[in-house]
Design brief:
The structure holds 2 protein chains of 2 kinds. Chain A is mainly α. Chain A is built from 19 helices and 2 strands. Chain B has 4 helices and no strands. Classes of the chains: A mainly alpha, B mainly alpha.
Amino acid sequence: MLDHLPALQVVVPLMSAPIIVLLRRPGAAWLISTLASFVAFAIAVALALRVAETGTVSYAMGSWPPPWGIEYRVDALSAFMLVLVAGVAALVMPYARRSVAAEVAEHQAYLFYAMYCLCVAGLLGMTITGDLFNVFVFLEISSLSTYVLIALGRGRRALLAAFQYLIVGTIGATFYVIGIGLLYLVTGSLNFADVAQRLAGIGELRPVLAALAFITVGLGLKLALFPLHQWLPNAYAFAPSVVTTFLAATATKVSVYVLVRFYFLVFAPSQALEGVPVGGVLIALSAAAIVAMSLVAVFQPDLKRMFAYSSVAQIGYVTLGLGIANEAALTGSLAHLVNHGVTKSALFLLVGGIVLRGGDASFASLAGLGQRMPWTSFGIGVAGLSLIGVPATAGFTSKWYLIAGAAEQGSWWIVALVVAGSLIAVAYVWRFVEAAYLAQPPAGAAAGEPPLSMRASEAVAVALCVVLGLVTAFNIGFARRAVGLLLGGAG
Amino acid sequence: MGHYAYFVAIFLMVAGLYVTVARGNLVKKLIGLSIFQTSVYLLYIAPGKLIGATAPIVAPQYATYSNPLPHVLILTAIVVGVATLALGLALVVRIREAYGTVEEDQILAEDERRDADA
């Protein structure tokens, strides 16, 4: 049984979806998806502990040995991502019951949970698999369920947002398939480790460069790399709150993770990357993302949209570290996946609470929120500090490593850029503080905190923003081990 | 001319992508997307076939085999493509019910008008 944990990691949420569809009752659907996500989280933690003890776990799906069969590979990097994805999936479930009941029509609720389970299964599968084509299959499982989840949002704009994301997401996934097709034609293998080995002997070849370009653009669309981010703000703003939270914390991060695997474990050992300014391009795009998207975020009329644009900027910090690609910067990047994931889940959970009570999250309706919803406002304040990167919060630790990495390389303008990005973040978080604490609430405005089950999830997420800033064993510790794997060769 | 399968695939790829980006009609966008995805099927399958070769059956009279793996991969990709198209069309039906049109510029204008009223 314990030997099969890597398979169960994906199978448990995957099989929950059809069971939910058969049962059809919203209560039962919620219960099953909660159980599934907590079991998935437990499996992820167990796998991470095993990897920390005994090293990489390789699981041959259906007992077909790699590179012929599909390999599930849990190493320091994927274990780290599994814990993040399954952790966020479990974190939002207690919150989901009341939030989904308020935002999704009752006869569609069971379908919502079924799609949620499929999305979790897809993201976990993308993370755990060691097979190039399998990544595509799981990418599409998670994407197709994401389109449905976004379309379940209130109002007709969610439909158009879902459709636009469907077009862009499918183009991205198809680009990825073209890329791995070219790699397959060159190497004759689809296993990550095997492809890396065979590429190392080949040297420089044009199809490999084309594959690199297709994979970068394809995954860039999925991870909302500036300027391929246009789908993201609408999708986040019009999706149900639970979906926004889950996507912001996991979906783009998993695509970053796949890109990291390609860059550092497949392409880097070969000579394919030599003479190609991948790092320079990434740094330039990330710099644009950090400055432009943070500035756009300042001028949004709505809290959800503001944090959506801020997400694009925060992804910029992650890709910035990938571009710099020394040990400290990569540690910062990987840690930022977790830190930003936790911070954004806290923020979007709290914003979901405001939407539940007040109907929307526009700045006009936030006036005097500090008096009407003191806990929610306080939580957004704390998570906002983590978003800015104030010391003793999660956001600080990863930015510290990024700055250290840039300084090590002597790129002082990048140091200035990270600081500037943080200052702009102060501006947009301040807009919330101003509206919530310095304005008088209008007479007769809705008051009262969200229900206890929702506040429990919010409290855990906000607490994590601070705890991960003080106890860095998980985020920094794990990131360091993963970086050791990335820079140590094909491992 | 040995590469003509690739030329066909790349023509379809670019044509499909162009239709997806340039057309405002949501159904036409989906048609373009389908053409784009179909081109990738060709890109995979064409190199797998060796002229004069058979399926990999181990028997003394066959010596050269075609690679069956690309077919299997593309079978999966076709399933994914069909699912995407079905979901996309379902969304278009819902959009048409909500907005009364499937033209992107009219939908956006409608949203803007609603914003101006609010």
